[in-house]
Amino acid sequence: MNNSNTQPFAALSAAPNEAIPKSNTKAYHLLLWLIDGKEYDRNKLILDPLLGESMRSALQDLRSDKLLNWLIHSSVCEHTGAKTIQLDPRHLSGDIEQDAEARRERRKQFKEVSAKEAKQGRIREPKAVREMSDAQAEYFKSLGNAANDEN
User: Fold this and answer.
1) How far is CA 127 from CA 27, 51, 141, in A?
2) What distance in Å separates the CA atoms of residue 123 and residue 126, rounded to the nearest whole number?
């Protein structure tokens, strides 16, 4: 990793350069937290002003094709109910094959969710179009009534 942007990521030596986020992004800052391999409480991470109130966009970027599918595990503690995240240890192994295996696993998950959402959208489309048409008809009808008011 000869890119100066990746300097803090020596622990991720097996990661492709394209998987390292740009240094001015929330995804980069979140990855800085996760590279020690520890499990982090999401509520504590959002207190970091560089991450903001929601880590959603940073997690989406890291987990998506955009940054080559980082496998970040989410879990909920049975005792406290705390929601936690943790970088898959294969990304930290220094082994290119293990890193690639974790990325393949995450990419498979990502594409399964994407296909499911696309299917649900297609199934819901007729109802959504009907509801939109009804709302538009009601709106335009109200405009006609307002235009004919004698006031």
Assistant:
1) 37, 38, 21
2) 7
